[in-house]
């Protein structure tokens, strides 16, 4: 994996995704879907599991989010990890050296499991939300107008 392929949603894609999401929401879970392509081709059967993922992608597109699909076993470089976390590469190396992020070495290059990186990012966001709530409560307790 050399980079994360982000697929962006514009207003047209968001609207079409919202329409498709509403149509798919009416289906029972576990339902297979047949896609009919223009040009008279045979229908394409989507397995129910693919439909679950398609709904998730459509939901993100409908909100205007960018989407990337990557395999669970994917690994990223330290630079890619830094871009995903929006920090510097040396900061990521420090996280690895401190044991906060796992990696494996490929020669002299670090490879970080994407699943571990995303878990780290989620945990960091959760800690930041708790800290913000604590600061807000403290400001309220001190009568600072929050």
Please characterize this protein's 3D structure:
There is one protein chain. This protein is mainly alpha-helical and about 150 residues long. The mean pLDDT is about 90. The N and C termini lie far apart (about 45 Å). The protein has five helices and five strands, in the order H-E-E-H-E-H-H-E-E-H. The chain folds into two domains: about 10-60, no CATH class; about 75-140, Multidrug-efflux Transporter Regulator, Chain: A, Domain 2. A three-stranded antiparallel beta sheet has the order 3-5-4. It has a two-stranded antiparallel ribbon with strand order 1-2. Helix content is about 50%, strand content about 10%. It has helices spanning about 10-25, 50-60, 80-85, 90-95, 115-140; strands at about 35, 45, 75, 105, 110-115. Helix 3 crosses helix 4. The longest helix is centred in the last third of the chain and has 28 residues, at about 115-140.
In short:
This protein has 146 residues and is mainly alpha-helical. The chain has helices at 11-25, 48-62, 78-85, 89-97, 114-141, and strands at 33-35, 44-46, 75-77, 104-106, 109-113. Helix 1 packs across helix 2 and helix 3 crosses helix 4.
Per DSSP E runs of 2 or more residues, the count of β-strands stands at 5
DSSP helix fraction = 40-55%
Q: How much of the residues is beta strand, in percent?
A: 5-15%
CATH class of the largest domain: Mainly Alpha
What is the fold named in CATH at topology level of the largest domain?
Multidrug-efflux Transporter Regulator, Chain: A, Domain 2
Low-confidence stretches: none
The CATH architecture name of the largest domain reads Orthogonal Bundle
Largest sheet: 3 strands, antiparallel
Annotation field: number of helices: 5
**Spatial order of strands in the largest sheet:** 3-5-4
Q: State the shape.
A: flat
Mean pLDDT: 88
């Amino acid at each position: 994996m050399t980079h994360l392929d982000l697929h962006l949603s514009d207003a047209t894609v968001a609207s079409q995704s919202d329409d498709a999401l509403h149509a798919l929401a009416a289906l029972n879970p576990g339902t297979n879907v047949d896609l009919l392509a223009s040009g008279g081709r045979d229908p394409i059967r989507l397995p129910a599991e693919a439909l679950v993922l398609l709904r998730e992608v459509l939901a993100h597109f409908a909100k205007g989010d960018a989407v990337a699909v990557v395999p669970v076993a994917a690994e990223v470089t330290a630079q890619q990890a830094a871009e995903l976390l929006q920090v510097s590469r040396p900061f990521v190396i420090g996280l690895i050296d401190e044991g906060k992020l796992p990696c494996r070495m490929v020669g002299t290059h670090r490879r970080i499991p994407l699943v571990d990186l995303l878990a780290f990012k989620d945990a960091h966001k959760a800690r930041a939300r708790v800290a913000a709530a604590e600061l807000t409560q403290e400001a309220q307790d001190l009568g600072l107008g929050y």
